[in-house]
Design goal:
Number of domains: 2
Number of strands: 24
Radius of gyration: 21 Å
Number of helices: 2
Shape: globular
Structural class: mainly beta
Largest sheet: 9 strands, mixed
Order of helices and strands: HEEEEEEEEHEEEEEEEEEEEEEEEE
Helix content: under 10%
Strand content: over 45%
Length: 325
Amino acid sequence: MLYKSSLSALLLAVLCRASVAQPTEAVSSDWVPPKPALAALSDHPEKVERVGGLFFGGLTEMRPLIFQYYHLGLLQGETPNVTLFLTNPGREDALIHLRKGVGKPSLDYFSTGHSNNVAWFKSLLGREGSIITVKPGETVPLFSQPLPQNHVVSGTLGLTLMKGDPVQFAFVARESQSQPLILNNLLKESDVHSRGFYPAAVQQVNRTYRVGQQPLHIAIGAVRQQTFSGVRELRGDYGVTYQGDLTLVNDTQEEKKVRLVFNPRGGTATGTFLINNKIVEVPQTEAFALRPFHEETLSPNSSKIVKFATIPEGASSYPVRIVVE
């Protein structure tokens, strides 16, 4: 995210010079982007009361960005919305791959953050995506979501510049779909919410558990990444994927069961897990409670690998601990 005045002014100038147009028709694609190079989070202002820019950034060729947003709508307009505008200031077409997982707007903060992650993992499993061409000098609305009053919205967007010179984008709050692009910066450095660009979009976690050992603890969201373009460190690692291989070993002569238990450490939390390519949802769980959510059966003298992935959820209090026992 660009907070320094000179960089912000430069980006706004580029966006303002470009003509706003409709993007070419999106073409469905099952293309799989490379591993994300960066994570980005827009969580400020958490309460959107005015129109304007919520997040500013850019893309460079074949360096995918995972962008997650979480905002409460308080705009009064006809059809309030949040829209991602993308500008191509270059001299050739920009080819953009877009993957999205968008939560359902809700009065329930937990529900929105949770449904966002469920939708994102479904899009990954289905290899869903689209390719949009942005002509030189054009600014196009790449993505838009309604922002109903007093509802929370949350979404995760995978953005990859497949081909072309660097492009810029702005995530903007508007009172209606017909409202012109307004780029006044709504960001305040004094706000305590995390937002910005973070260097690790994926945290790789590989662990081994042997039956009979003390329970194994896997921390999710405990890393505090320092932003290199933004204001706050990323407490809770929201929008960051935790993935890895959990190797389970049964050295005994008997069949054994091993379970995974959801254990929030900072407050109430929900969870969504991709376990061996199946989505497992964990309902709202109070701090320090123990909620089993997955079980594996191991034959005598056997082992197996459980592949898992999860993302800390908006509104939930992370970190959480996954107890393997």
